[in-house]
Specification:
531 residues; mainly beta; Immunoglobulin-like; 4 domains; six-stranded parallel β-sheet; 45 strands; 38% strand
Length: 531
Amino acid sequence: MPSLMVLATVTVFGSASTPASAVAITSPSTLPSGVVGTFYSTSLAATGGTAPYRWTWITCSGACNTGLGFDATLSNNSTDGKLNGTPVNAGTSIFGFRVTDAKGATATANLGITILSTPPPLAITSSGALPGGVASTSYSTSLTATGGTTPYNWAIKSCSGVCNAGLSLSPAGVLSGTPINSGTSTYSVGIIDATGQSASGSVNLTIAAATSSSTANYFVSPSGSNSNPCTQTSPCATPDYVVNNKAAAGDTVQVAAGTYNYGSEVHFSKSGTAGKYITLTCATRGACKIQSSVSGNSTVIACDSMGGAGIDVGTGAGSGDVIDSNLVYDIGWAVPSCNGKNTVHGIDFETNGGATGTITNNIVYHVLGGWGIQFQGASVGTTGSVIANNLLFSNGNGGIVFNEVGGTLDYNTVVNNTILVNGTNQSKCGIYEYAVSGTHNVYNNNDAYGNAGGDYCFSKGSQNAGISVNPSLGTTFVNWQANGSGDYHEKAGSPTINNGRSSTGAPKDDMDGNPRPQGAAYDIGAYESPN
C-alpha cells in the first residue's frame, strides 16, 4: 500500500526575553563616617531588578543614631536611597536596609556607620614629588588630604625655586595650567576644612623643558661657545654676540633655558627691516635669565639719555619692535649714573622718530628707581603702539608713563594690564599721561590699585571698563604677594571676570596664551579666567 510522507517547514516569528537579574544592594558594608553635630549625607546603591527602587530601614543595632534618616526627614523609607541628617551621638551603628524593586523583588544588607565625637585630625597626604610635567604642555594633578570635615579649601601659601606662573591651585585642590618654564618648584600648600581646622604641607613639582623642533637660524646655550657656528648641536654662548655678529634681517635666534651672566650692559646693536625682524626668543618661555653673578653689580642695565632700563629700546623712524614675555625685577638705582641720571626703568621704549612698538605679556616688579614701563616719543599717522597683558607692581616711580617728546603721542592702546601698588619711592601713578596732547589713546580693561600718585592720571585720556580693587582683600588673585612669589591668576569669583569690554587693539589672548574672551565678556587685567 503506498505511503504518503508530508514534509513541512514551520517558521515561528517572535522574540525571546532574558530574565532580569536579581536585585542586590551594592553599597559597601562600611559607609562613610560622620561627626556629631555635623550634617551627614550618603547615598545607598543597588543593581538588578526593575527600577524604580524603594528603600527601607528595617533594623538597627549599636549606637543607632537617632539623628539619621532618609531624605533629611528621619523617615525610614525613601525612593532615592539618600541617608542623611545631623548625628546626635557618637558610636557605630549597624543598620539593616531593604530595597524593593518595581515588581516587588527585595534584597537586604547590613551596613555600618561610625559617628565620631570630634573630626579626625586634618592632614595633607600629598607629599614629596608630584607627577612631573613638560613646559608649554597642559598639566593637571589633584592634591589629597584625610581627616577633618569636608569640603576642603586649598591654597598655595608660598613657593621657592622656579615658581611657575602658568600654574594655579583651585580651592578643590587641583593644581593645573600650562607651565611656562622648566625646573623644580617647591610649593608650601595649606588646607582648611569646613570647621576651620587647617593643615600645611610641602610638595615638589619638576617641569621638563619642551622638546625643541625649532626652525631658528641660530642657537644659544649657557654651555655653548661664541667660537662655535651657533647651530643647534654646536650653539654659541651669549645672545647679544649672535644677534650683533651672526643674525641678518628676518633671522630668528633661539636661546636655550638657563642663566646668562654678564658683568656689564647687554647691547643689541643690529636691527632688522620692516617686515623682516630679527627675533630673539627663549626656547622655554620665562626660563632664560640674564643677570650679573657679582653681588651689588649696578651695570647690567642699558643706559640712554633718560637714564637706564632693564630692557631699553631706542629706535628711529622704523616700526615693529616687539617686547614680549619678559620678566624684569629687582633693579636698583643707577650708581654710577646713566648719562647723569640715576633713574632706571623696567622697560624703556623711546620711539624718537615716531616708531611704533608692541609691549606685551611682561612681568615687571621691584624696579626701585623708575617706571615699570616708560614709553617716550611721538606717534605717526593713526596707528600707534600697543601695551597689553603686562603685570606691573611694586615699582619705584609708577606703573606706565607716556612721555610726549618731539610731536603728538596719539592712537596708542593700553589694555588689560594689571598695575598694583607702584610709586613706592616717587609716589607716581598707575597709568600716567605726562604732557600728552593726543586725544585718541585708548585705555581699557586695566586693573589698577594702590598706586601712590593715583591709579589713573590723564591729561587727555580716560579709563574705560577698568577696576580698582585692593589685592590684599583676597578676592582678586589666587595668591597675591607683593614680593613676586604669588600667583596672580584670577581667583574664582574675582570682580575682574567678565567685567571688561572689547576694543580695537585688545589682545586676542591673555598672558598665558589663552583666547579672550572665555566667558560672557572680556576679563580685566593680564589674565583671562576659564570660569
